[in-house]
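Sanity check record (used in CI):
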Amino acid sequence: MELIGVIGGMSWQSTAEYLRLLNEGVRTRLGGLHSARLRVATVDFAPIARMQADGDWSGAAQVLAQEARSLEAAGARFVLIATNTMHKIYDEVAAAVTIPVLHLGDVTADAAHAAGVTRVGLLATKYTMEQSFYRDRLAMHGIQTLIPDEADRRAVQRIIYDELCVGRVEPSSREQLLEIARSLLAEGAEGIVLGCTELELSISPEALDVPVFPTTTLHCEAALELALEQSPQDPEVHATPPPVADLKAARQRMGPSRPNPVVSGLDQPARLDNARSGLAAAQGGQLVADPHRRCCP
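Expected output for Aspartate/glutamate racemase:
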C-alpha cells in the first residue's frame, strides 16, 4: 500500500471526512484491521480564508507548496489537495514536488463521463464557481459547467463558510442547496457536482434524481485505487522515499501537460495511468508512461 499525502485543514471538517473515507475504503477493500497509510498536513484555515478573500493566491500557494514538500520529504508517494477551491493554485503546488498530485477536477470529469454526463451544474464556493480554473479543467475533458445566479452563489457561499466549515448542518440550508441544484437542472444540467468538499456533509447523492458527483468521495476513491496497486503482503513498504533523482525521473516519464479529451470511465481511468507509471519508475518498475499524457499536469 502506497503512502498517501493529504494537504488538509480547509476546512478541518472536510479533512476529517477525507480521513474517514480513506480509512473506511481500505477496510472495505482489505478487511480486518487494515487502515490507510497517510501523512496529513493540516493548515490553519483562518489565514488561508483571508488570503482567498483578499485575492492573495500567491501567498496561499506558498503555504500549500511548503506543505506538499513536507509530505514528499516524509515519504508520501502522491498528494491530495483536500479542497476544491485551492485547486486554483494546483499548478504551483504540483511544481513544488516531484511526486504526482492527483487533481480533483480530473477525477470528477472521469465520473461524469462514466455516467454519460456532459453538462453539469456546479455548487461550490464563490471562488470555484465564479473563477474559471475549475470550469476550465472540466472543459478540458469535454464537460460543460453551469453555475447558479449571483444571489444563489452568495447563498451557497454563506452556507459553506458560515455553517458547514464550522460544523453546522442546517436542514433549512440543505433544502436551499437542493433548490439551487434543481434550478441548474431546469437550465439544462444533466448532473450536479458537489464542488466543495464540505457540501457532502449536507447533501447526499441520493437527494436528487440525477447523477450527483461528490468530489470528496471521488477523490478518495481515486487515491485508494492508486495506493492499493500493490498487495498488502508485498514486503516493499516504502518507509522512506526513493532518491530525489529517481523521483525526478519518474515525473519526467509522466510526460508533458496536455488536455485529455477522452476518458474511459471508472474501471480503467485515464487519470491514473500515468500516475501508476510515475510510481513504478520511482520504484524501479517496468511500466512506461505515454509521453503525451499525464494524470497531474
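The chain has two domains: 4-105+218-282, 106-214. If this sentence no longer matches the regenerated C-alpha cells, the check is flagged for review.
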